[in-house]
Amino acid sequence: DTAVSQTPKYLVTQMGNDKSIKCEQNLGHDTMYWYKQDSKKFLKIMFSYNNKELIINETVPNRFSPKSPDKAHLNLHINSLELGDSAVYFCASSQVGHTDTQYFGPGTRLTVL
Amino acid sequence: RKEVEQDPGPFNVPEGATVAFNCTYSNSASQSFFWYRQDCRKEPKLLMSVYSSGNEDGRFTAQLNRASQYISLLIRDSKLSDSATYLCVVTTPGSGGYNKLIFGAGTRLAVHP
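YS: structure for the whole thing
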């Protein structure tokens, strides 16, 4: 009965590789998000989708490409991974009009070697 | 200047102590205000919203001063289980009429016996 789930939980990979992180929510929410939390613990929004449509796209390198096959899923694909991409990536969801109450997934800890 | 600033702490307090956290935000267009809690290596979770009139939830009291762009959180009778990082969060208008959450870096609280 997990609300927001992410896979994998840990990801260790070499520089230059391409990797994907998957997110699914079973809350019936229309809006989903990707956040990055770096080593200094700042949590910053990267993308937001509302009912499969991109609505927020912060200044993120275009190596990062989100994909929403349906409103319950928001995946993040990262090309040509760099050392600076090492961070914890959190997926979240909320109801439309309730941006404040976001439910976060458990996070994916990405380490780029 | 960071959009949301918090004292990083850590605040080391004994059980039963009262502790207060402060937060300032820079964008006067910010509309909603919250405290989230993040346990070590876990996802952030909404603790409480913050209203201008002040609001209380058990041992937790939150206050907002819009004129000073200042938010506070008071925890009374601290418990060991209160040990966590407390994130000050504001919503600001994003593109297309969608708000986005801006997180502070968090204040770490450690409650000891």
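YS: worth flagging: The mean pLDDT of chain B is 92.
IM: good catch. Also The first strand of chain B starts at residue 4 and ends at 6.
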